[in-house]
Amino acid sequence: MAGIAHPYEDSTSGDADSSVSPALAKPRSKVSFSDLVETWALRDAGPDAERRYHEQRGGFESTHGEITDGYLCEAGPMAIVLTAQPPGRLEKLLLFRKERIQIYTDTERLVRAHPEVAHVLHRAEVQYVSVRQALRGLSQRLLVNWLFVWNRDVMISAAPVEGVAAAAFEPHEIRRLDRELDRIGESYEQAASREAQIVYLGGMLMGVLALCAVAVPIGLLLSGTDVPVDLTTFFGCLIAGALGALISVVTRMSADRFHVRHEVGRGYVQRVAAFRPFIGSVFGLLVYFALAGGVIRQLDIPNAESDRFAFFLVLAFAAGFSERMVKEVLRSTAGEEAQRPATQSATSPAPMSADATDARRRLDA
To answer: Which of 137, 160, 183 is the last residue of a domain?
Structure first.
């Protein structure tokens, strides 16, 4: 998990000067979780050790956030803490983010003493990384707390009692831990699917804004040329196609017919979604040019200028909303072109029969 501590070496063994250990040295600017666990284990060595522990804890919390919950085994360095770091002032103003929660663990001795739980601890670690990367807000907080309680219960079950090492985990206990992780995984999949849809929609909105920003210099460039294109209709179709793609995604989300692969990461989903409005605008312009250029002849273009503008905008929106419609129209147009040679061959002279061929040969002879 995030911030896994390094193995702890028992520094209490040895001579009487063991209280003056590297863990009691001058505090560093950044305190790791392993440093905090070491000073906690030595906090009963004297007043200086207790003061040192509080200094290390203050340094750790200043970097990683306030410790809101935790468990540290008295008989060995098995420890887990849950921290909460509030957002900065700029994050509150721009990102509207809530406090960030993280789990820090020291499980080296636990794995050595109970290797039978190593695979479930690894599963929990992978699940935690997925939750931290894919989720935000309440869903992330609930699942992180669930994983914290799961890890804490494993440590409590493995902790020695009155100096006697705990017995190995029974197979039925391992299966119970696996089932609990399965339930956590199912909850994560549901929450991650919803989160991915929100991220995808946000990426599309960013793509629409980027498209509008790109359209401005394109308009300035085309206005100074002699391109025989109505710029008002051109940019209207461009924006209508992008909005059609956006509305198409929103409609399918509301009908629960749109699914995103959340396991690829938030950044990848956002980048893919940002290109969706560009695709819709390209299809909208494609329909506009196909109609204006006479490639598509199934539809009659209105003669009035205002009617033409509305006509092209509606078709551009429909093209962005459903790219399949554009493909079908273009395929039907190509089919008509392919049928023309067949029509011409039907009007050509029919082939001669065998008797007529023999008569022609005798006349030639």
So the answer is: 160
Q: What is the pTM of this model?
A: 0.72
pLDDT in tens, 71-96: 888 766 688 999 988 877 766 665 55
User: What would the pLDDT profile of 13-33 be if each residue is shown by its tens digit?
Assistant: 334 344 444 444 444 567 888
- Indicate the number of domains in the chain: 2
Residue 27 domain-assigned (yes or no): yes
pLDDT value of position 119: 93
Amino acid making up residue 166: A
Q: CA-CA distance, 188 to 142, in Å (whole number)?
A: 10
Question: Are residue 103 and residue 224 in the same domain, yes or no?
Answer: no
Q: Which residues contact 242 (CB under 8 A, 6 or more apart)?
A: 207, 208, 211, 277, 278, 280, 281, 284, 320
Domain enclosing residue 59, as ranges: 16-160
**Residues 359, 287 contacting (CB under 8 angstroms):** no
List, as one string, the DSSP characters of 70-101: EEE-TTSS-EEEEEEEPPPHHHHHHT----EE
Same domain, yes or no: 26 and 154: yes
List, in sequence order, every residue forming a beta bridge with 70; answer none if it has no partner: 81
